[in-house]
Every structure is written in C-alpha cells, then in structure tokens.
Amino acid sequence: MSIEDYGGGQTAQADVLVVTTNDVPGHQVTQVIGEVFGLTVRSRHLGSQIGAGLKSLVGGELKGLTKTLVETRNQAMERLVEQARARGANAVLMMRFDVSEAADVGTEVCAYGTAAVISRS
C-alpha cells in the first residue's frame, strides 16, 4: 500500500480551502454562509470482517480497515466541499470529523464545518 492509502486531504489546486482553524492567516472572512457537512455510511464485506477478526487475535494493524476508513473520510470530505461550493463558499472553517456506528451495520463518518467566503487581507 502506498502513502495515498493511509492519508487524505486537499490538493494544492483546491478551489474550496478546508481548514481546522477559526481563520486563515492573511485572509479575512467576508461572509459566513453557515454549517455544511458531508456524510457517508460504509459497511465492510464479509471477507474483510472475518480477516479483521482473525487478525485481532494476534494483534497488529488492520490494513484493510485502515484503507476503508481513509476512503470513507475522504468521501465525506469531498461531499463537504461539494456542499460548500454549491452554497457559494470558497472556504470551510473549523472542519471536524465525527465517526459513529450506524445501526450495527456500518460506520458513519460526517465531515462538518462552517462555510465562508474569504479574501486576502
């Protein structure tokens, strides 16, 4: 697996900047649009479940699960950006992830933050 399988985030060419901070140095917030979020629920297939169960007996990283969670977070983030863009934002401030179990059948991942329009100071 490559480094791309274990991480995520934006490219340098992103048209909607997503940050975990309240503001962006060198920029001012000119308009707050409001809360935006991207949500996805994923389940693992039976083979993955069995493999993870066996691996948990001996310990170590569950690489298949790690890859699935990275893909899930990235999809939630993409949906967050799509919603912000559709509402006219060029930034999402204070982005966070929330992860929970969804009815014992999958993992729910929600990326959320505050959509805003920012400009250079």
TrEMBL record:
It holds the Pfam family YbjQ_1. SUPFAM superfamilies: YbjQ-like (SSF117782). It comes from the Bacteria. InterPro entries: UPF0145_dom_sf, UPF0145_YbjQ-like. Belongs to the UPF0145 family. PANTHER family: UPF0145 PROTEIN SCO3412, UPF0145 PROTEIN YBJQ. This is UPF0145 protein JOF59_003013. It comes from Streptomyces clavifer.
